[in-house]
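Entry for the shared binder. Reason: the reviewer on the internal report wants the predicted structure included alongside the sequence.
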Amino acid sequence: MNSFISRIRRMYAWAVHAASSLQSPFLLFVRLYWGWQLIQSGWGKLHNLQKVTDFFTSLNLPMPGQMAVFISCVEFFGGILLVLGLLSRLNALVLVVNMIMAYVTADRAAFLSVFSDPDKFSAAAPYVFLIASLIILIFGPGLFSMDTLLLRRYPYPTNTAAR
């Protein structure tokens, strides 16, 4: 019985190790795919600012013209930073706030149905961007990122006074 449990534990440890080795490639995929989608979305908005401004006006947002430029830039440059894995967590935080505000302002019914009708919530346009941004915010950009390269080159200073 002991060897059976030992074998199960070894198999489980191997499975955990194998799955953990996929973390950085998965984070790279999330960053590349959804970053590219954000770049395209922001680029499209930047080239149709009047349409975006009209939409923001219909939502009664303050300063719709300036807001259209700001949101377009957040998506475009945020997507570029996501693809590069640069300033990843800060960028992801900005994108999370942006997507929550997109839910609240443009798709309030879907936002309020998160528990009552999860299909409606997950079918809304901001959902996948919100999830991708939350993944990067929580787990970081992974090994294949500019953040990792910069941290290797310029590591955080250690606190020698605490020793």
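Summary line for the report: The mean pLDDT is 95.
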